[in-house]
């Protein structure tokens, strides 16, 4: 009868081990799903924050670009206006060119 009790105990222990294995397997599946869900959520949050920051930086860039472009256009126009008002001395210019390029005076 003792052998029958030992077999019964071993069979019971095997059932307990089988049940524990199922519980561990279920816990692993649940943990993997929670990790996957957390990663998906973190990625979505990162993308959202990245897009918002990129939009702010792009707007700032466009604003600064417009200001610089406007300043550039004004400086260029002022220069063109100042040059247009100058009188030309073609003889003096030709003399400088001849001196610098051909060594003649």
Fill in the keyword field for this structure.
mainly alpha, 105 residues, 0% strand
Task: Give the secondary structure arrangement, pairings included.
Blueprint (H helix, E strand, L loop, with lengths): L1 H83 L5 H13 L3
Could you describe the 3D structure shown?
- The chain is mostly helical and 105 residues long.
- Helices cover 91% and strands 0% of the residues.
- It has 2 helices and no strands.
- The mean pLDDT is 93.
Strand portion = under 5%
N-to-C series of helices and strands: HH
Using the alpha-carbon principal axes, give the shape: rod-shaped
Radius of gyration: 43 Å
Number of strand elements: 0
- Regions with little confidence, pLDDT below 50 for 5+ residues: none
**Helix coverage percent:** over 70%
Q: List the quaternary state of the chains.
A: single chain
Mean pLDDT: 93
Indicate the structural class. Answer: mainly alpha
First-last Cα distance:
134 Å
């Amino acid at each position: 009868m003792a052998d029958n009790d030992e077999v019964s105990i071993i069979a019971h222990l095997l059932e307990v081990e089988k049940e524990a294995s199922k519980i561990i397997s279920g816990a692993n599946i649940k943990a993997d799903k929670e990790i996957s869900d957390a990663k998906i959520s973190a990625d979505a949050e990162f993308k959202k924050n990245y897009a918002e920051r990129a939009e702010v930086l792009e707007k700032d860039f466009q604003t600064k670009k417009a200001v610089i472009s406007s300043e550039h256009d004004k400086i260029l126009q002022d220069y063109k206006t100042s040059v247009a008002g100058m009188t030309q001395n073609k003889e003096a210019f030709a003399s400088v060119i001849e001196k610098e390029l051909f060594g003649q005076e």
